[in-house]
Write a structure and sequence with these properties.
Rossmann fold, binds NADP nicotinamide-adenine-dinucleotide phosphate, alpha/beta, 213 residues
């Protein structure tokens, strides 16, 4: 199946951390939109505001329906705000697709970890998907999808990404358990897509190494 043969007409999709035009999140949003979904572009940093607006405009120019919501998904309040604004803007009671793409922090090994750096990485990669599902699940009908963007770093044991890899492993574990919890009780599927290195939005390696932390 090619990416453009899905029938997502009228489905509402929230893609966290999708405000940078060359990032994985913006590409996912654009693809979901091409297949008919209404998409929510989410960002957190003020510095990314104009880029997020640009992502949504570009989707609208191609005939899609997109809105932008600034929210910190690593807090319960931010996740609730994202869900509320999504429902308000699209005038719907449903959220059909959540893509947990946001990830914060910078690369470092365990010896460089600080309380703050651990908090940033774990709160965006592990806590955020939990807070967002708590806010969104009451509005997700049977057949809805939650997709976590993982990383091969969860399995490779790379020294320079020890903390990030550990957080992605915790996220993988959540996927397995939530697939059981939400699949059985509510008919919501939960999956992880684990990319290898991808040239990210602020890649400084000239595309050689990807931007995976
Ligand atoms: N690029 C790679 O090589 C690669 C490989 C494997 C997996 N991945 C995964 O793919 C995903 C996207 O990676 P990427 O490289 O395209 O982009 P990225 O540079 O990791 O950017 C992710 C986005 O997350 C957003 N974000 C951070 N904290 C947030 C928060 N608290 N609330 C809402 N948004 C927040 C940031 O928004 P602001 O711009 O507003 O700060 C940022 O634009 C990540 O989960 C990453 O771990 C990437």
């Amino acid at each position: 199946m090619t990416p453009d043969t899905l029938d997502l007409n009228g489905k509402v999709a929230v893609i966290t951390g999708s405000g940078k035009e060359t990032g994985i999140g913006a590409c996912i949003a654009s693809t979901l939109s091409r297949n008919g979904a209404f998409v929510v572009i989410n960002y957190v940093s003020h510095a990314s505001a104009s880029r997020a607006t640009g992502v949504a405009e570009s989707i609208r120019e191609q005939g899609g329906k997109a809105t932008v919501v600034q929210a910190d998904v690593s807090t319960p309040e931010g996740s609730k705000e994202l869900v509320k604004k999504t429902l308000d803007v699209f005038g719907t009671g449903n959220i059909d697709i959540i893509v947990n793409n946001a990830a914060g922090g910078t690369p470092h090994g365990a010896l460089q970890a600080t309380r703050d750096s651990l908090d940033t990485i774990f709160s965006t990669i592990v806590y955020a998907p939990i807070f967002l599902l708590q806010a969104a699940v009451p509005h997700m009908p049977r057949g809805s999808r939650i997709i976590n963007i993982g990383s091969i770093a969860s399995k490779l044991g790379m020294a320079s990404t020890a903390i990030y890899g550990a957080a992605k492993t915790a996220q993988d574990s959540l996927t397995y358990s939530l697939a059981m919890e939400l699949g059985r009780s509510r008919g919501i599927t939960v999956n992880t897509v684990s990319p290898g290195p991808v040239v990210g939005p602020d890649d400084k390696s000239g595309g050689k190494a990807g931007n995976d932390r």
